[in-house]
Structures are given as structure tokens and as C-alpha cells.
UniProtKB/TrEMBL annotation:
Keywords attached to this entry: Amino-acid biosynthesis, Branched-chain amino acid biosynthesis, Magnesium, Metal-binding, Oxidoreductase
Residues binding Mg(2+) 2: 231
Sequence ranges assigned to domain KARI C-terminal knotted in this UniProt record: 223-365
Protein name: Acetohydroxy-acid isomeroreductase
Gene3D superfamilies documented for this protein: N-(1-d-carboxylethyl)-l-norvaline Dehydrogenase, domain 2, NAD(P)-binding Rossmann-like Domain
Organism this protein belongs to: Streptomyces alanosinicus
Cofactor or coenzyme needed: Mg(2+)
GO molecular function: ketol-acid reductoisomerase activity; metal ion binding
One GO BP: isoleucine biosynthetic process
Organism domain of life: Bacteria
UniProt key word Magnesium: yes
Length: 489
């Protein structure tokens, strides 16, 4: 299990009560910015390689937070990159040394943050490693590269620190909430951090400083392997893939029951991204059941206990395939097969056309929580929580990857755009995973869970849900919740 107790020579740390003990966390905020030069001691230049959503957000946040510190943030792009113009538009230029060729930037930086697409990192990491100056620290925001290195029998180069800071939300939100933080201290996206290799003993403070500079409200510790597994599994399960499968299956169920298209969309997709997500975010997972009347609870109980088993089986299968490299290999193979060709989109089906009509007619309408929909979603979320707990993940990581990132980051974005938009516009790794596993959840629920929901509820599963330790962990995490909701404008 990941050790969650650590110390810092720079930042004041706090403890968070979790089931079975406590975890050390760092509460962020702009009042800590004056400490950043100490955290980044020995770093004069940070090279950010890549200009995708995370690269664009992190480069700007780091630059703005470190203004006046003497630390330069430079963006490195591959020759011919179409992102050069946008990087210049955001103030990174060749003339002042803050924009350049990726390998040149890597060679001239003390901290090299690798924010290239996963497939690009898999293909070009050795070129980057060869360019590094002695003692330079390798920074990651995702553990995918570790999985790839292990699958190919390779490793990070000796003599270099390897740290990770992994925001629990999309790059656009990392930037937007950082900007909100100028007015509301504590606005931002939570992050995990990991110290994978630390030859000079500065990895913890460097990772914490990086997270503070990104604007993270709080930062929790993990390992690169644990982050990779929880992140990839989460994308394929409750964060994206399972959500796609859930709303497709529920929309079809409600249409077959006689609902018109907008009503079926409201009872499925709109309900999850709206009232269900808000209820969990503000009051916890148990509150979705507690807020129902007696008839609604009876529906919830039958649907929850019918869904939990099939959901747990699928999450366990996903976890096994992530852990043994199968899922990673499927991504690499798909990238090779697709090349530069665009992936087909899911957003053209009649369901998503109904979504456009529903969003157009919101006008302040308040939808009640749909009991059956809430049960299916809560059972899937709990199944992922239980799988992560059984596999030894710390509670801070479990609640962030299974609950907080969903209800405070991704679902509000899906509410503003829709689930199909998210699937069609997220990273290729997440998109490939959602398209692979979403239909599996849909089929399992249509063929196994929903027929079983006609049977009496399993009281043992309901007792376990009522007394679940996740409720304690979420209550502790809620005390560190950002003071503003995510910006999706």
C-alpha cells in the first residue's frame, strides 16, 4: 500500500482522517507562492514539452506563479508543430527564450515536464532521455510512461529524479480555476504527487511546489504505479467509460418504457450530470438515497443491488488488464493503426440530439433525482471504490479518482456539453478506453443488471453501502474542497 506519511522542509502540512488512520496532505493556496523559490531550489529553468490541454494550462500556471522568482518556464514543441502559433499567442516566444525545439528545451532545463500525448511519449522518450542534462529531473502528469517502460523491459535513466504531479481534472479546468483563484483563494484542481526516483532528496518539496504553482487546493501522495493504475482504470470506469455505458443503457430503457426522447435523456444523462453529481459533491454518496421518498428508496435499493455485482466484475477486469499491460498495449496498437486519421465520433446518434433539446429548455428547471438512475450510478461508483480499496490504494486517491474528479470536474463539464462531447474530445488514451469499455458496461447492465432489478433487494449489499468507509473519507476530503465550483465556460 502507498505510504501517505511524509514531511516537507518548505510547506506546512496537515493530516486528514481516513478509514483506518490518517494521511498527510498539503493544503494549497496563493499564500504559499512566496515559498516556491525554496521548493524549486536548484531549478532555474522548467521545460514543458507539449501543448495539449495539460501543457497549455500547466505552462501558463507555472509561469504566472513563478513570476519574479528568477525561474524561467519554457515550452518545447516538436519541429513543425501546429501549436507554435497558439503558444506564441499565450506569451511564449523564441525571442525571449521561452519557446523552442523540444529536444533543445529538454537539454537546457533543470526540470523537464513531459506533457506530450501518451503515444508520442511511447515513441520518443528515448530521444528526450538522451538530451537531458546531468541531474535534470523528469516530471510527469500521468504514469502511462512507467507502464510502457515496464512493458518493454526499459526504465527511466539512472541519475535523474523522476516525480509526478497529476491534476485530477482536464487541462482547461486546471487553467480556468487557477484564474479564479486570483479572486477566490483555494480555487483550483486537486492533484496527486509521486516521487519515483529521488537521487538528491529534493523530490518531495519539488513535487509539492509544482502542485502549489498549478493552484491545487490540496495535494495528496501516491506512487507513479498507483496513479497510473487508478487513473487509467478510472477513465475506463466511473470517470468516462462507465458513464457512457450507463447513460446509453438507461436512455434505451426509458425510451422502451414509453418516454419521449427529451424525457428519457433527462432521466438518464441529465440526471447523472446534474442533480446526482451535485448531490454527491455537496452532501456525499449516501445522500442520493437519503434524499428519496420511501417509494424512491425501494426502487433505488433494487437497482443498486442488481447493478453492483456486474459493475464490480467489469472494474476488476479493467484493473487486471491495466495492471498486466494489456490495456496499455491496446492503446499503443490503436495509435499505430490510426496514425493521423481521426477517430469516428459517437455524438451523432439520436440520443445526443435529444440532449441539445434538453439543454435548450433548462431555464432554471430543477430536476429531481431519478431513483433508478441514481442507483445504477452509485453502484458503479461504489464498485470502483471497493476494487481500489482491495488493491491497496490510499483513501485520498480512492475518493479523488472515484468520486471527486467525477462530480467536481468531469460531470459538470459533461453537463455543460454532454457525455458524447467529452468522449469525442478527451485525450486519445481516455477516448480509446471509453470506446472499448463503455459498450461492455452498457451490455452488462441491459442484459444482467436491469432484469435483476425486478427482484427483491440484497439487504447485505445495502447494509454495506450504508456503513461504507468511503462516507468517512469523503467527509474528510470535503473539508478541503475548493470554495468555488469548476468553471466550464
Amino acid at each position: 500500500m502507498t505510504s501517505t506519511t511524509y514531511t516537507s522542509r518548505v510547506f506546512p502540512l496537515e493530516t486528514m482522517d481516513v478509514p483506518g488512520g490518517t494521511e498527510t496532505v498539503l493544503r494549497g493556496g496563493r499564500h504559499l507562492f512566496p515559498l516556491l523559490p525554496r521548493a524549486f531550489a536548484g531549478v532555474r529553468r522548467i521545460g514543458v514539452l507539449g501543448w495539449g490541454p495539460q501543457g497549455r494550462a500547466q505552462a501558463r500556471n507555472l509561469r504566472d506563479s513563478l513570476t519574479g522568482s528568477g525561474i524561467t518556464v519554457t515550452v518545447g514543441l516538436r519541429p513543425g508543430s501546429a501549436s507554435v502559433a497558439d503558444a506564441r499567442a499565450h506569451g511564449f516566444t523564441e525571442e525571449d527564450g521561452t519557446l523552442g525545439d523540444w529536444l533543445t528545451v529538454a537539454a537546457g532545463s533543470d526540470l523537464v515536464v513531459l506533457l506530450l500525448a501518451d503515444a508520442a511519449l511511447a515513441a520518443h522518450h528515448q530521444e528526450i532521455f538522451a538530451a537531458l542534462r546531468p541531474g535534470a529531473v523528469i516530471g510527469l502528469s500521468h504514469g502511462f510512461l512507467l507502464g510502457h517502460l515496464r512493458a518493454t523491459g526499459d526504465d527511466f535513466p539512472a541519475g535523474h529524479g523522476v516525480i509526478a504531479v497529476c491534476p485530477k481534472g482536464m487541462g482547461d479546468s486546471v487553467r480556468r480555476l487557477y484564474e479564479q483563484g486570483a479572486e477566490v483563494n483555494g480555487a483550483g484542481i486537486n492533484s496527486s504527487f509521486a516521487v519515483h526516483a529521488d537521487p538528491d532528496g529534493r523530490g518531495t518539496d519539488l513535487g509539492l511546489g509544482w502542485s502549489v504553482a498549478l493552484g491545487s487546493p490540496y495535494t495528496f501522495r501516491t506512487t507513479l504505479e498507483s496513479e497510473y493504475r487508478s487513473d487509467i482504470v478510472g477513465e475506463r470506469a466511473i470517470l468516462l467509460g462507465a458513464v457512457h455505458g450507463i447513460v446509453e443503457s438507461l436512455y434505451g430503457r426509458y425510451r422502451l418504457a414509453g418516454d419521449d426522447a427529451p424525457t428519457a435523456y433527462e432521466r438518464s444523462c441529465e440526471n447523472i450530470t446534474g442533480p446526482i453529481a451535485r448531490t454527491i459533491s455537496r452532501s456525499g454518496l449516501r445522500a442520493v438515497r437519503e434524499g428519496l421518498d420511501a417509494a424512491g428508496r425501494e426502487v433505488f435499493d433494487r437497482a443498486y443491488t442488481a447493478t453492483y455485482g456486474p459493475a464490480r466484475e467489469l472494474v476488476a477486469e479493467i484493473y487486471d488488464e491495466v495492471a498486466d499491460g494489456t490495456e496499455l498495449r491496446s492503446v499503443i496498437l490503436a495509435e499505430r493503426r490510426l496514425g493521423t486519421r481521426p477517430m469516428s465520433r459517437i455524438g451523432g446518434s439520436p440520443m445526443w440530439a435529444a440532449g441539445e433539446r434538453v439543454r435548450a429548455r433548462r431555464d432554471g428547471r430543477t430536476l429531481p433525482v431519478e431513483p433508478f438512475t441514481a442507483a445504477v450510478f452509485a453502484a458503479t461508483m461504489t464498485a470502483q471504490i471497493d476494487e481500489f480499496a482491495e488493491r491497496g490504494h490510499p483513501w485520498s486517491e480512492i475518493v479523488n479518482e472515484s468520486v471527486i474528479e467525477a462530480v467536481d470536474s468531469l460531470l459538470p463539464y459533461m453537463h455543460a456539453r454532454d457525455v458524447a462531447y467529452m468522449v469525442d474530445n478527451c485525450s486519445r488514451t481516455a477516448r480509446l478506453g471509453a470506446r472499448r469499455w463503455g459498450p461492455r458496461f452498457q451490455a452488462a447492465y441491459e442484459q444482467i443488471a436491469y432484469p435483476a432489478a425486478e427482484l427483491p433487494a440484497d439487504q447485505a449489499l445495502l447494509t454495506a453501502f450504508a456503513a461504507h468507509p468511503v462516507h468517512q473519507a469523503l467527509a474528510a476530503a470535503a473539508k478541503l474542497r475548493p470554495s468555488v465550483d469548476i468553471s466550464v465556460a
